[in-house]
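Entry 12.
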Amino acid sequence: MATKAMLLKEEGNKYFQAGDFGEAERLYTRAIQKDPSNPKLFTNRAMTRIKLQSWEACIDDCIKSIELEQGNMKGYYYLAQAQLALRHPNEALNSALTAYEECLRTNSTSTRNVSTLVLQAKKEKWEAKERDRIRRRSDLLRELEDGLRKGADHELHLLESRIFNREVGESEAAEEKIEIETSSKQKIEELWSVFAIADPENMKKREVPDYMIDNISFAIMHDPVTTTRGQSYEKSTMLEHLRRSETDPLTREPLRVQDLRPNLALKQACEEFLENNG
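Predicted 3D structure (tokens):
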């Protein structure tokens, strides 16, 4: 059974690489039926479901893969992506941080990608709180935005019903879904632009201080470390840099991983800024 499952998995990989995600999903499903105890089969199908934007199904696969393998970095990584897509930044941040810690524990080459996802989750968590702060100042903005989101959700629900009743094909449904989501996002952005022009003072978003920005990735730091020269960088970007060249990125002097020190004060400042500026 396990051998048959691996053959189906390899076949699924070929379709995934060719961009036929629907067929890849079906083959991974057949592989899971042959060997439901293999966590990698669930993460493979979860990755495919991200491509298909089947977020809820992706979450189910990720949770199952984590149940089968506690330290399943990919399970948490894909879980965070699906949670972000469903606009759940708090849950996504917890999942991404778990994946990040696992990357550090295993010295994974995926550390930088996972760190980027952590930063994205933190940013979206902050932006969600910032939007809520602004929305609380305008009942009209809140009502209009909620109406646009409900309209899009209703259209997506109708699309799901058409898919279930086989009234629309897989590729056509995927295109319609993207069109609905893109249209909704554009309408909300236009709405905010109108309110920003009408009330610029209250609609102004607060900026991240420069000292919280990593000078390599230019993103806000979430796990800063300090070099021997006292310059702080995001840990994952420094690990990636030192894999390529064991030198200080600023002075070009010799620098090793063990020379880096956690900047706990800056880490706390970044966390407090993201937590409080909402």
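Annotation: The chain has a mean pLDDT of 87. The two ends are 52 Å apart (CA to CA).
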